[in-house]
Amino acid sequence: MVKVKIQENSTQGKKKLFIKSYGCQMNAYDAVRMADLMAPHGYAVVDNEKGADLVILNTCHIRDKADEKVFSDLGRFKKHGKPDTLYAVGGCIGQAMGKKVMQRSNAVSIVFGPQTYHRLPEFIAKAQVKDENGKFTKVTDTDFPELEKFDSLPTQKADGATAFLSIQEGCDKFCTYCVVPYTRGAEISRTVDAVLKDAENLVSQGVKDITLLGQNVNAYNGLNNNDEASSLAKLIKKLAKIEGLERIRFTTSHPANIDDDLIDLFKTEPKLMPYLHLPVQSGSDKILKAMNRSHTVESYLETIRKVREKCPDIAISGDFIVGFPNETEEDYMDTLKAVAQVNYATSYSFAYSPRPGTPAAVMQNQVDDVTKKERLAGLQALLESQQEAFAKKFIGKTVKVLVTGKGKKQNQLRGHSEHNLVVNFEGGDRLINEIVEVKIEGAYLKSLLGILL
Ligand code: 5AD
Ligand code: SF4
Asked: Is the pTM of the predicted complex or chain greater than 0.70?
């Protein structure tokens, strides 16, 4: 997953804000917006917790390991804090188990959810009122006023040539394993105008590559100026007209909401990058049904075929869950078979993690941890071999790279190809934020190596 850098400002005379964001790109985007929001209140972002005045943990609740990490981080941050450091827990853990957070860690004064972070300055002011024991006031706010949030956030500050832009939030799909519909609320789409305005603002600050974000981004149905619902395809066509915007991507898509207009764009709209993240989760129709996924293996594969007809070399990315309740060895083998038909360029695969309050958590025949681990290892081995094969196809080819910063080695730059592969090559710093041509000479699991042309 792409990591979002929060712009680090000079901290002189300012209060220090440390934000740690966990989980998905939507959270990474939210963290950037929190930093934008706090800047006018005198907070400058720092890159670690030491000596911070305000520590925000922007949490993820999607799997149990994500929960554990937050609590262990909280303990560590507390050790490095000052007596009057304020700790705030936001994101999906804040939303789903705010009370428990407060009970489990007395350091935490503020709990909020993904839809209330625009009220952070207000929470901080309230929390800073100390009681007779000199303790901060506890503040919790986990409402769902989604559109109010966007209206009250300041204009987004760009950091470099790539940016995320949230166009749709929430989820109405209720996959039986997933907490997102409960933590992020119902699907809502921002208006076409609001999205265009944000995109124009980002481009005016030098952004060339925008990734449109939404939990079900292709279910986007924001209103246009005539109060008609617009599709994602229509929105992308409008965005593509913005001069200076060179690259458009979108994530995450649901297989049930991919329409032909969107698929066509992969051929007709040169600014739409050849990259599609389309989770399938399982290759067994029985499991997909139990997951309430509203698509079949065949309908998914048919979509992939259609997309490849329009854009043969497209990079396909997927999400997978192994060890869902009742998953047999045969179901698992069906997942491997489906994967073998797709040839993924990248992927995210997980062992099923029962989430409190979701229907799958109380289903009979939960799969034991050892089996889950074995299945995950088998699936990941196959996916990694596909990923490597995809990267190797670029050896000897010239790719266009948007340079995002320095590489790990001296004189090395790093950027992203149109297919969203990381590319390292030697070059001078003046190329940062430019699109350059690089001839690929080496391919690894997670990156390409090339020479600047
Ligand atoms: N257990 C394991 N993986 C999960 N995901 C969502 N919920 C769970 C869960 N309970 C995975 C899905 C989803 C991705 C964001 O996280 O694959 O697409
Ligand atoms: Fe979760 Fe399913 Fe919604 Fe994705 S589509 S956020 S997996 S409920």
From this structure: yes
